[in-house]
Amino acid sequence: MMRSNPFSIGGEFIGRERELALLNESIRRGQSVVLYAPLGEGKTTLFNKCCSKYKYSKDYVVMGCDLCGTQNMSEFTTRLINSLQHFTTEKANSLFLGLLKSIKTQLSIDPITGTPSINIVFSPEESKTTLEKIKHCIQSSSKQYLLYIDEFQE
């Protein structure tokens, strides 16, 4: 059974003002931050509260990547690309299109429903190269990226 978040009561965020201030200061300085705590302690709530002020800023891109269920580097890379593609800027779009060259797709058809689906596939070597391209894409952007990777233990 999941525990309820002790820092959110009735949708109101409480009791994490110090952590929120530290997180905002780290973002202002351009630092990377790891939020680590047991399940249900409010990490996602803290991140969402912090990023709510950056969400509509022209200087920041706020994005999340949920790794729940990923089993390998290829799946991680696919999830990251799927998250990134929704938030790319005009300049980053051309770099993002370059990423597509390293992507191989597999077309499959569900034997029960007959529904076609396309899966993105990377070899371990291609995953590393693709992650380097994503890093370059983000670093060359004029915006600051705030990326939340959830379920990183996967």
What is the structure about, briefly put?
The chain is of the alpha+beta class. The chain has five helices and six strands.
List the helices and strands and how they pair.
Layout lengths: L7 E2 L2 E2 L3 H13 L13 H9 L8 E7 L6 H13 L4 H11 L3 E6 L6 E6 L2 H16 L4 E7 L4
Parallel strand pairs: 3-6
Antiparallel strand pairs: 1-2, 4-5
Helix pairs in contact: 1-2, 3-5, 4-5
Which consecutive residue ranges, at least 5 long each, have pLDDT under 50? Answer: none
Question: Radius of gyration from the CA trace?
Answer: 18 Å
Number of helical segments with 4 or more residues: 5
Work out the number of β strands: 6
Q: What general outline do the C-alpha atoms trace? A: globular
H-E string: EEHHEHHEEHE
**Biggest sheet, open or closed, and with what strands and sense?**
2 strands, antiparallel
The level of helicity is 40-55%
Class based on secondary structure composition and strand pairing: alpha+beta
Can you describe what's shown?
With 154 residues, the protein is an alpha+beta fold. The chain is 40% helix and 19% strand. The chain contains five helices and six strands, in the order E-E-H-H-E-H-H-E-E-H-E. It has helices at residues 17-29, 43-51, 73-85, 90-100, 124-139; strands spanning 8-9, 12-13, 60-66, 104-109, 116-121, 144-150. The strands form three sheets. The chain has a two-stranded antiparallel sheet with strand order 1-2. It has a two-stranded parallel sheet with strand order 3-6. Helix 1 packs across helix 2 (43-51), helix 3 runs parallel beside helix 5 (124-139) and helix 4 (90-100) packs antiparallel against helix 5. The protein is globular, with a radius of gyration of 18 Å. The mean pLDDT is 75.
